[in-house]
Amino acid sequence: MSDYGHDLVFGSFVTPSNDDPDRTVGVAVLSEQVGLDLVTFQDHPYQPAFLDTWTLLSFVAARTNRVHLAANVTNLPLRPPAVLARSVASLDLLSGGRVGLGLGAGAFWDAIEAMGGRRLTPGQGVRALEEAIEVIRQLWDAETRGGVRVDGEFHRVVGAKRGPAPAHVVPIWLGAYKPRMLQLTGRRADGWLPSLGYLQPGDLAKGNAIIDDAAQQAGRAPQDVRRLLNISGEFSAVGRGQLNGPADQWARELTELALGEGVSTFILASDDPDDLRRFAGEVAPAVRELVAAERERAAAPERTPTPDRAAEPELAAEPEPAPVAAAPVRASRASVTGGAFAVVPTPDDGVRRSDQKVWDESVRPTGPTPDPDRTYTPHEQATGAHLVQIHDGLRAELAQIHDLIEQVAAGEIDAGTARSHINTMTMRQNRWTLGVYCESYCRIVTTHHTIEDQSLFPRLRARDPRLGPVVDRLEQEHHVIHDVLEGVDRALVAYVGSPDGLTELRAAVDLLTDALLSHLSYEERELVEPLARLGIA
Fold first, then answer.
1. C-beta of residue 154 within 8 angstroms of C-beta of residue 169
2. Cis, peptide link before residue 73, omega less than 30° from 0
3. pTM, 2 dp
């Protein structure tokens, strides 16, 4: 198992086709709108069917606000490293620190040579790439006195002035497959970026081993090198192979790659808007949740149960293990420390936006009363805190939906954030933006509920049958919320088709707000303490 502990990143790998430039840019903009973290384009300057990658990256940077951008990967033989360094730094400054640098040693040498590049052997390509990294990093190091000097076999810079420095520390990722390139990745790079389709079974593990060894020999830690992976696949109702099946299959397989092979950045090669929406809205949240749960479980200290711990005072008095590192609870909640249970469920404030009722809250069952004398370790309390944090994320996203609706109603959303080819009128662009956001949010909620229904709730039932009525009720409410989400979808369709549809959309989202906030508060009230008491992560 090779989990390097990096935060998870999800991105798109968009074809830079020039036959419909508006669509190419639109797919990139869509990647940001649905919640992906990264947009990448392949770089083949000799391909006349493609837009120039660095021109395209600059254009997309101007049309987006949050998403990071990179070539996947830059064709170094046709991009002189000193000029490339200044291009990257300039775009990073202009975009507010959103640029990464993928580099490749070169391929398709006939085409490179036809464009005026120098044909290199594989060994020469690796040496040229290492020299280029030195040139680039020296040029970015604007604080060091004196000019850049690299007297290399393939790249020579004699006193060039340094700068500009990028807006942030730009990571350098190498597209590597062979041992010499992998060793270079471990010595000098910030990330390894292969494509899954080019790898054989076992290649990820072998590559990780080479990179880790080279990093350590260079005085670095294996964790200094992020592991990225280009992936492709097909969403279908029935599983037919790797990354060919429903979203939950994708989530399981990517989770295995994250925890078993150390991959922390998944970049989907697809130009299909529906694929990108499902990847961002269904797969990414599920993978993040599954990986976080497994990391928390793996970080928990090993504890050997005794037949009767209370009868052995010398064991009962042993010190509690150190708290597991976890995201902090909101400042308004009690901190997670050993002793009395301190995780505060979110109260239901009783405010309702809609006159419609989807269930009778007065008949909700309750679980067993907690033992007031029981104490809890920090690790035991962390699981309940994590549930509250997940719910807080859903609450924050719900607030953003309401804010978006008001921005749409006021015409305040920037039309440039909508897909490029939807350009007939501002309101139509704004509607499309809102629709993508609501659709993505609905999928996130559904994925969270599915994980609870299939994993968390059965374990609670098995460990404490007294929780059965509560769990049954929560599952029933999940189905009701699913129907309410379908109502939001219907309202979105009506809104796009009718200028008067905003009233119906507001009503649908108000009903969703009432149902979801009430449900989340009820779930926290009934489950945060049992999660700690039963030791469920």
1. no
2. yes
3. 0.62
